[in-house]
């Protein structure tokens, strides 16, 4: 890294705070502006502080982590409910399918926001680049 870097480029970005802000759907930089402009579409810039967010590259990571969490939460509950109450097959299919869909829809935007916050805090995928200044 060049010694000519701007002081703002060298400042510490707290990872935990950025991940928490992102998981709440807020800008990882300021915590005020909305991170998403629709369900999973990340805004190009923060409406509050102007931080560029288009650099994010969450890709399939949030989906994989969501599947991992939902399946690891659902499987023991499925087994325990079957052993305890012996519900019919259709009851289990409907309840656990609905539960998996709802849990996935609740977790996915939070996990994606956390991924974006982590990328911002660690200066990954262009988040650490110096801002372009016009001469």
TrEMBL record:
The keyword Transmembrane helix appears for this protein: yes
Domain of life assignment: Bacteria
GO MF terms held by the record: zinc ion binding
Keywords: Membrane, Metal-binding, Transmembrane, Transmembrane helix, Zinc, Zinc-finger
Region (Disordered): 1-22
Record's keyword annotation contains Transmembrane helix: yes
Transmembrane segments: 63-85, 91-108
Any coiled-coil regions, as ranges: none
Stated name of the protein: Zinc-finger protein
Species this protein is from: Paracoccus acridae
